[in-house]
Design brief:
The chain is of the alpha/beta class. The chain has one domain. The protein has 10 helices and 12 strands. A hairpin with a 2-residue loop joins strand 11 and strand 12.
């Protein structure tokens, strides 16, 4: 049976952000699957515009723009290489003339707001390096926001996985041509990607558990919108909580390991 997409007004979404504690000046890392929230009656940019309004001129927005085409084609263009299954919000930020994209051909993020200008020149072999873009955002109290997206979509999980060298991932070095801006085009560049080891490729989980425990500790918050649960909390709290699990068992995110 064909699913009927619900509809949503701007004020309902705005109230949900209030319930999540989103305020002016916040720096938000947003994962989105907006089809779960509904078709915006106030125009297709309603979600993005409401987020911009909430954080104001002093806040910044970030969204994943991951793509794996560089692994296959060895070519990357900051405008033409589209994010893969990263949500409508990422696609809209990519088209926003006031946004920019971080300098990594696989694990890039889209950035909007005053922090974008401060961070857009960060370039590291791995996006999750200790001096990379994800690490730098932690210095600015970035909040993770899940809008229809599940906890297993949280990109910061890979930060901890790389830190603890989890056994089911391995570093891949990829060489190719990149175009990071109108004036920054290069050949034979090497970047790293801490990707799944396909020879192992286990079933992962535990992300829901992490978020539920953070909410129970009053570090994260959640709210309901259109029958969908939205989440928000500091990225640093999420990482520190996951780090405790991985310090005890680097394979904690593997389902069979966690329940053995």
């Amino acid at each position: 049976m064909k699913r009927t997409l619900s509809k949503i007004e701007q004020n309902l979404f705005s109230n949900a952000l209030d319930n999540l504690g989103i305020v002016e000046g916040d720096n938000l890392f947003v994962h989105s699957d907006l089809l779960h929230l509904g078709f915006p009656l106030d125009g297709k940019l309603m979600y993005l515009d409401t987020l911009k309004h909430k954080i104001g001129k002093m806040g910044s927005l970030f969204a994943p723009a991951f793509t794996f085409s560089f692994l296959r084609e060895h070519e990357y263009d900051y405008k033409l290489t589209r994010p893969i299954n990263m949500g409508f919000l990422s696609d809209q930020l990519l088209s926003d003339p006031n946004s920019c994209r971080s300098k990594h051909p696989i694990n890039s993020i889209l950035m909007y707001g005053p922090l974008a200008n401060k961070l857009n020149n960060i370039e590291t072999l791995s996006a999750y390096a200790e001096d990379g873009i994800f690490a730098k955002l932690l210095d600015h109290n970035v909040k993770i926001v899940l809008l229809g997206a599940r906890p297993d979509h949280i990109s910061y999980s890979h930060f901890s996985e790389e830190l603890f060298s989890v056994p089911y991932r391995k570093f891949l070095s990829v060489q190719g041509s990149v175009r990071f801006s109108e004036t920054d085009e290069r050949e034979n560049c090497v970047f790293q990607f801490f990707g799944r080891n396909l020879e192992i490729d286990p079933v992962l989980g535990g992300y829901d558990t992490l978020v539920k425990e953070l909410i129970k500790e009053h570090k994260w918050t959640s709210t309901n919108l259109q029958g969908c649960t939205l989440y928000s909390g500091l990225a640093l709290d999420y990482i520190q909580h996951l780090n405790l699990k991985l310090a005890e068992n680097p394979a904690w995110l593997i389902e069979k390991e966690r329940f053995s």
